[in-house]
């Protein structure tokens, strides 16, 4: 690997760290909706795969690190993965420990990063001998994954019932495009459908706003007043191992190991389950909350890293909720990447190691320091100067552009249809993992239904 490529990776990782330190602090900045479109644009731009991977790793680590700020200060989750921490973070806030909450969550993320990277690289190498067998049965594996994720969700029966109809919708649109000649027969329109699912709730809300009765019935609120309590300043670089107690370090490390091994399962479900499990033996509410937030963040960070690296290095197919969600453009971004030609095939083991380490180190050092030292200032700036709606509007317009590039004007209507349906299903309790795995397995599902 030459010096110029390493320099490009460092610059890309630095840009991602700065960008997602700001974006990640915004309330509701879901990781899939904010990271996947930008990563996709980079892939389609023809940038070196190692540079994109360094950018992506830096982005997910920075995004998860900084979500300590809105959760701890305002009790508002930055993304889906930070939702389980809100209740415990508010307990710390009520006890005047907002700064402690931020430091505990950010330190847990650092532990998750430190543990998950070597574990992920080891597991990826261990799975390589079985890669061909797993890939051979990739389509039914995606279907089984959709069923398993549905069974693990709270609304399991709705999730299960939605798989076949949603698969029919996906393939129905593809066959229609082939029939009217929008795209050549056999062309797999994928990216725009994937993004339509990603911002489905946003699309559904926008359509609801066109209904006057619905719009008039919506509750109105005055401007929200958020009180930010000033905490103690940190003058030197914080040490996560001193911020956390020995028990919290131990639980966070164990949670990170579990999250890395169970990369194929739902990150939100695993985070909630093990975070509550490890904290359940502690009676003191403050200590319990501290253990919960640090453990949850460590596990969440570990699932993000392992869920990206293990399928990417070992398989080349997105066989995890993380790989199917935010990391999907690393696997499948036609015409640049597809399941037969993506980063798995283009990068060597040393490329993966260098890109991961550069992205992880830069994001961890920069964002951890910023999150702990300047949390109040960041939160104030984001709440005052960066409207949530502006970011959603930016990503929505990007989705429409990519829909047009994928299959012309008619595909914009197709993506809106997918967005409405997936938005309704999401509100009913069907999680993104089920929808994404159904998207992947739709051709196989329809093929099997035609045989019956």
Automatic annotation (TrEMBL):
Highest classification ranks of the organism: Bacteria, Bacillati, Bacillota, Tissierellia, Tissierellales
Membrane-spanning ranges: 6-26, 38-62, 68-86, 106-128, 134-151, 158-177, 189-210, 249-270, 352-372, 392-418, 424-446
Record domain DUF112: where: 10-431
Keywords per UniProt: Membrane, Transmembrane, Transmembrane helix
InterPro entries referenced in this protein's UniProt entry, alphabetically: DUF112_TM
Protein name per UniProt: Tripartite tricarboxylate transporter permease
